[in-house]
Amino acid sequence: MKLLLDEPLMNYTFTKTGGPADVLAFPKTREEVEALINYCQETAFPWLVLGNASNLIVRDGGIRGLVIMLLDMKEIRVEGTMITVEAGARLIDTSYAALAEGLTGLEFACGIPGSIGGAVFMNAGAYGGEIKDVFVSSDVLFPDGTVCTLTNEEMNFSYRHSDIQQMQGIVLNARFELEQGDEGMIRTKMEELTYLRESKQPLEYPSCGSVFKRPEGHFTGKLIQDAGMQGLIWGGAQISEKHAGFIVNINQATATDYVELIAHIQEVIKEKFDVQLEPEVRIIGEES
Ligand code: FAD
Question: Which terminus in the chain has less CB density within 10 A, N or C?
Fold first, then answer.
């Protein structure tokens, strides 16, 4: 198994920021993940699992202990209308695998850059679709070594939430139930959504996507624009001029730039509009 020591996580995060992991592991099989967790439990070594690091800010001090990335576990299997995907496969590749079989239901996911594990954890969604709409079940490995199959109901999905967020479990795979559709129509839908995304989002810069969850009754980008903050530069980070809900890394930003700018936006929006913005992005690791 590939194991890297003192590996800078900025090489993996979509914001291109973040300090090192003491140990970074890339298991290729479920058995290798189980062996890693077993070792960590026996030696009380701290561990954490990451997906494609597209919804993460890792603070500049990095992460102590073992970080497991499942990106080498990426099998996608289609049987009839059911797709079974290993946790490290990209959601984008999964949506294209569905297209290739003329299966409809995952078009919404064609531009979300996360892994399957991260998408289940976050209940990723876009343009009116969410993981919960097509999710059947996942095998989840718990620290005591047990593997349980959790169903859609047991995940208790809601907006950018699944109950995995409260459990210390590793999503090993996911099963999605899709419907037979028309390949041409599926392709057209995916092209339309890709066009929308490319025209509205600052994909030319590193970012973590939408920084904040959508607050009830408001749009985050509009609040930030109305507060006069769009374009604000903080160290090497900037509130995107194209989409105010994104913070882009324009000039070697640090995780500290991101964390401080997020706190500043929250403070200003609370003060001006009495709205509490809640980060969608996960902020983890130690300060430098
Ligand atoms: P990571 O960022 O690696 O991790 C996120 C969390 O999931 C972490 O807490 C991690 O511990 C946990 N996790 C990851 N894998 C596992 C696993 N196997 N088992 C248990 N826990 C795990 N999101 C949307 O919902 N809709 C969008 O339209 C969207 N657009 C985006 C556009 C851009 C340009 C970017 C950069 C991001 C966008 N995102 C969007 C955010 C992100 O892609 C999603 O939240 C995605 O689901 C995160 O997946 P990941 O694999 O990158 O997870």
Answer: C
Ligand 1 atom 39: the closest Cα is on which residue? 209
Is 90 catalytic? The answer is no
- Residue whose Cα lies nearest atom 23 of ligand 1: it is 124
- pTM for the predicted model, two decimal places: 0.97
- Please give the pLDDT value at position 288: 85
pLDDT of residue 110: 97
Alpha-carbon torsion (283, 285, 287, 288), positive or negative: negative
Residue 251 has pLDDT above 90, yes or no: yes
Calculate how far, in angstroms, residue 1's C-alpha sits from the geometric centre of ligand 1: 24
Nearest ligand 1 atom to the CA of 87 is: 18
Q: Spell out the domains of the chain, with CATH numbers in brackets.
A: 2-69 (3.30.43.10), 76-199 (3.30.465.10), 202-284 (3.90.78.10)
Question: What is the structure's pLDDT at 146?
Answer: 96
Buried b (16+ CB within 10 A) or exposed e, 85-107: bbbbbbbbebbbbbbebbbbbbb
Nearest Cα residue to atom 1 of ligand 1:
53
Three-state SS letters, 156-216: CCECCECHHHHCCCEECEEEEECEECCHHHHHHHHHHHHHHHHHHCCCCCCCCCECECCCC
Cα(272) to ligand 1 centroid in Å equals 30
